[in-house]
């Protein structure tokens, strides 16, 4: 039990336990060893989190924005000072290499808190002159927001949701994924240490039923989910019952288009990052790599060479570049997709099986070429290090094929012709696009999907729209002119 937290939940300023809740066993994906046992939130814990958040939000919403910002800034400093220990915990929870978690997970979460601490005091309303009378607007917090996280970036997701929510005067109840429940508890602890009043960021553990209980509570004004499309549909529908605000960050099958004039080494590097980083468990991954025919064989041979050099291993070793998948269930799912790809006639370029390590949920970094649009590998989200490479002849064709999917989270284009880069991106149905780059998601830029990949945007100024509502105030400056 080397990562056992003080208790399962963090509610109203402190750790809370209720062992009546069903057990949640936390497993280190590199070894299968059980590192903690937590309990699902019981109705009593959920009620305490909701009533505490609702009560605390009233004063917080009326607090001067710079004071709220000061607290979040202190939390940023604490996170950065403790990055190493937090990153090790993230590695134990997810199996992702420390080489990644120390630079990508908590650091990105700290950036979000820093950004929204800076932004929130600048959020103001406007005055609309009407020639005497006037209207002014107030951007108000929504109230109590629920955040529901996925297991791929558990601490980053908690921070990305907490930062805009809290800085803009809301309270948040966060339910981590039952697969990775540990990081969010640390965030709650750090926020309180930084001076956040009790109740404003509560963490409750549980599976879908706990999430469902939060989403449908009458005190909840908004739900922000990061997860799969099927779960998104359920949560969106449940939130609609109460006409609640929603942000949905869901899955993808994003196209990465490589034209034959591209810098091929950069395109391969981006395709590898966009399929193998975090062992392929990233929603915006470019999992359909369209390569123009002229460079296909060069692309494939260099990809195989570079992939063979990837260092798989113990995630706590700083030299390790690729860790295991998050769970046994995910391992089976990814192996299943590899089998389907082979059976459907895709050409295996590298990998294609479990990795030869004695323990853990490891698979080899894998690439299939000659994938066609109708193959399962080109249509469904695998969420593992499995790259699908498709051929294309020309620009018009590739745009049509890239858009032929229910998803619309992200897309990338590699070309030396920048006019073409902009022209193609303008026609791609995706919420987040890159030209000659891939998967970079700085907090300064909006992030989110179109079509089944979601609604709303996280990060950037765009998130302000999703954590506030506008009150419009008409001010009459003269006598009321009534006809009766
Ligand atoms: O995700 P879910 P799971 C994909 C990935 C993975 C599959 C299932 O392929 O294999 O989805 O993973 C909570 N009301 N992605 O089961 O079900 C749940 O407890 C309220 C891709 O982990 O989407 C968890 O906290 N909440 C994806 C969160 O929703 C509910 C990231 C996400 O769970 C709920 C994650 C309900 N009815 C998985 N049901 C991406 N693309 O980013 C579940 N939850």
TrEMBL record:
Organism of derivation: Gemmobacter caeni
Record pathway: Amine and polyamine biosynthesis; betaine biosynthesis via choline pathway; betaine from betaine aldehyde: step 1/1
Cysteine sulfenic acid (-SOH) found at: 283
Enzyme Commission designation: 1.2.1.8
GO molecular function: betaine-aldehyde dehydrogenase (NAD+) activity; metal ion binding
NCBIfam families for the chain: BADH, PRK13252.1
Binding site residues for K(+) 1: 27, 93
Protein name (database record): Betaine aldehyde dehydrogenase
Protein's job: Involved in the biosynthesis of the osmoprotectant glycine betaine. Catalyzes the irreversible oxidation of betaine aldehyde to the corresponding acid.
Details of cofactor binding: Binds 2 potassium ions per subunit.
Signal peptide: none
Keywords per UniProt: Metal-binding, NAD, NADP, Oxidation, Oxidoreductase, Potassium
Cofactor dependence: K(+)
Residues involved in NAD(+) binding: 149-151, 175-178, 251, 283, 381
Enzyme class: oxidoreductase
Record: residues binding K(+) 2: 243, 451, 454
Family: Belongs to the aldehyde dehydrogenase family.
Stored PANTHER family: ALDEHYDE DEHYDROGENASE-RELATED (PTHR11699)
């Amino acid at each position: 039990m080397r990562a056992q937290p003080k208790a399962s939940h963090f509610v109203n300023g402190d750790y809370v336990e209720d062992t009546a809740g069903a057990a949640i066993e936390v497993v280190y994906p590199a070894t299968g060893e059980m590192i903690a046992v937590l309990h699902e939130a019981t109705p009593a814990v959920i009620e305490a989190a909701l009533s505490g958040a609702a009560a605390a939000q009233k004063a917080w919403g009326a607090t001067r924005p710079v004071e709220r910002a000061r607290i979040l800034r202190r939390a940023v400093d604490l996170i950065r000072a403790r990055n190493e220990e937090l990153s090790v915990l993230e590695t134990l929870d997810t199996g992702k290499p420390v080489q990644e978690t120390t630079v990508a997970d908590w650091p990105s979460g700290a950036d979000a808190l820093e950004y929204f601490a800076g932004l929130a005091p600048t959020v103001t309303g406007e005055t609309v002159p009407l020639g005497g009378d006037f209207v002014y607007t107030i951007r108000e917090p929504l109230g109590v927001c629920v955040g529901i996280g996925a297991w791929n970036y558990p601490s980053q997701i908690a921070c990305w949701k907490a930062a805009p929510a809290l800085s803009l005067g809301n309270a948040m109840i966060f339910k981590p994924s039952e697969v990775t429940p540990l990081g969010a508890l640390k965030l709650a602890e750090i926020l309180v240490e930084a001076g956040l009043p009790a109740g404003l960021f509560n963490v409750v553990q549980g599976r879908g039923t706990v999430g469902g209980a939060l989403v449908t509570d009458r005190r909840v004004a908004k739900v922000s989910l990061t997860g799969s499309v099927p779960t998104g549909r359920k949560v969106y529908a449940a939130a609609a019952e109460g006409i609640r605000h929603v942000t949905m960050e869901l899955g993808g099958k994003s196209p990465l288009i490589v034209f034959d004039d591209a810098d091929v080494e950069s395109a391969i590097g981006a395709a590898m990052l966009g399929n193998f980083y975090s062992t392929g468990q990233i929603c915006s991954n470019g999992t359909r790599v369209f390569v123009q025919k002229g460079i296909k064989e060069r692309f494939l041979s260099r990809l195989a060479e570079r992939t063979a050099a990837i260092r798989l291993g113990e995630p706590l070793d700083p030299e390790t570049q690729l860790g295991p998948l998050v769970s046994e269930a995910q391992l089976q799912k990814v192996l299943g997709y590899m089998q389907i790809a082979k059976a459907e006639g895709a050409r295996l370029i590298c990998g294609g099986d479990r990795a030869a390590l004695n323990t853990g949920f490891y698979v080899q970094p894998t690439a299939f070429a000659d994938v066609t649009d109708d193959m399962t590998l080109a249509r469904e989200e695998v969420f593992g290090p499995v790259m699908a490479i498709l051929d294309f002849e020309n620009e018009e064709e590739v745009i049509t094929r890239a858009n032929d999917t229910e998803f619309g989270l992200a897309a990338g284009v590699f070309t030396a012709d920048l006019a073409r880069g902009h022209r193609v991106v303008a026609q791609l149905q995706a919420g987040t696009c890159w030209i000659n780059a891939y998967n970079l998601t700085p907090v300064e830029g909006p992030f989110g999907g179109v079509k089944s990949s979601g609604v709303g945007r996280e990060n950037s100024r765009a998130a302000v729209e999703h954590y506030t509502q506008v009150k419009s105030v008409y001010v009459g400056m003269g006598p009321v002119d009534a006809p009766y």
